[in-house]
Amino acid sequence: MNVTVENVGPCKRSLQVEVPVEVIQAEMQKVSAEFFRQARLPGFRPGKAPRHLVEKQYAGGIRDETRKRVLNESFRKALEEQKLRVLTEPEVKTEEFGPDKPFRFSATFEIEPEFELPEYKGLPAKVEDQQVTDEDVARALEVLQEQRAAYEDVDRAVSSGDYVVINYQGTCEGKPITEFNAAARGVTQKDNAWMLVETSHFIPGFTDQLLGAKVGDKRAVKVSFPADFVIKEVGGKEGEYAVEIVGVKEKKLPAVDEEFAKSFGAEGLEKLKEGVRDDLGKELADKRRRALVDQLVANLLARFSCELPETLIQHETRNTVYDIVKSNADRGIPKEAMDEQKDQIYAVASNSARERLRVRFAFERIAEAEKIEVTREELTQRILQMAAAYRMKPNDLVKQMQKNNTLGEVRYQVLSGKVVKFLEEHARIETVPAGSLANRPPDA
């Protein structure tokens, strides 16, 4: 068999294969024998019909089956010979097939990147020497206080630090702000809006002009929209709001005492502090491990480069764009604002997609080199965890994954976790003073 390979693009190859006549004839004899054993012709028992009648009756089927087998087997052998890892379904073009001449075909497909796996054992990383302090616990208790804060109505004039409940209507250049941007409804008009009386809240200087007001008062509030205001159409312009004071509230924090601790299910204040310290310790350990893993991955990527399959880049980029858009929509960012940033979103998604693909190919090569595998039990456990999180029956989740062809992605999630653990176990980790890793580039 004669095989030539041509590079036709990034991670794209074209094989030209010529199968000799003797291989075709030998395969056709095998196929003919199978047809002879199974053929049913009128007046003859299966396998007893004369061979020449079978070959005449089933000539087309014998030729097609032979062609299919020769094509599949020669393609498989050609891939093994050239050591190519195929990622996409090949685009196959064939010449006329017959038993008395060589069979020629070409196959074009994308392959896994070809790169030399860098040294991945002993990757350098640094972790900060951090411990949970009494100050950390005190700050956490303040957060818990905020969760139990009460907002009491007060019959007095508005003071700094109060919360006011107001109705407002805003204009710019004498027109409702929605005429500048239809998505600006919340900035234009709202009833029973809570606002903290603080200079930077809402629009800078807005709540300052409510100081001294009482419930029932109405005020005209003039503002200057910042140049980088979220509604860019009015950025840098002047505006005016008609404001009615509906309520004035003062925030009251509970005392951090035994009753406060019991409201969180603790036996007492000391037990609450112990629980808080333990939770902060776990959070700190998780943060430290994420920083460690980020360094290891960054240092691994810095050690090699490779071309990437265009099909996978496009697929991964589309998925990333979808995730970014969904995340922004969940945060309340208007579609119009995202449309204006679509080029930037796509650029970010493309860069992120390329990095994730490089990580994936590196991890899979490391797993292959170290014989790291995902067992059936590990895959099942992961699916059970996902089913519990999604509140689905495991069988229903598996069927959904099979339909969407995502079981492979779940397998990779388990595999990548095992590879990361392997990299951690073999890393050169140095402990450094707290705060020394801020904005630090990865080690080469």
How is the secondary structure organized here?
Layout: E1 2-9, E2 12-19, H1 21-38, H2 51-57, H3 59-82, E3 91-94, E4 103-110, E5 124-129, H4 134-147, E6 150-153, E7 163-172, E8 175-176, H5 185-188, E9 189-196, E10 218-224, E11 238-252, H6 258-262, H7 269-301, H8 310-330, H9 335-340, H10 342-370, H11 376-390, H12 394-404, H13 407-425, E12 428-433
Parallel strand pairs: 5-12
Antiparallel strand pairs: 1-2, 2-4, 3-4, 6-11, 7-8, 7-9, 7-11, 10-11
Helix pairs in contact: 1-3, 4-7, 8-10, 10-13
What does this structure look like?
By secondary structure, this protein is an alpha+beta fold. It folds into three domains: 2-110, 2-Layer Sandwich (Alpha-Beta Plaits); 150-252, Roll (Chitinase A, domain 3); 266-433, Trigger factor, C-terminal domain (Trigger factor, domain 2). It has helices spanning 21-38, 51-57, 59-82, 134-147, 185-188, 258-262, 269-301, 310-330, 335-340, 342-370, 376-390, 394-404, 407-425, and strands spanning 2-9, 12-19, 91-94, 103-110, 124-129, 150-153, 163-172, 175-176, 189-196, 218-224, 238-252, 428-433. Strands 6, 7, 8, 9, 10 and 11 form a six-stranded antiparallel β-sheet that branches. A four-stranded antiparallel β-sheet has the order 1-2-4-3. Helix 1 crosses helix 3 and helix 10 packs across helix 13 (407-425). The protein is elongated and about 110 Å long. The model has no long low-confidence stretch (mean pLDDT 92).
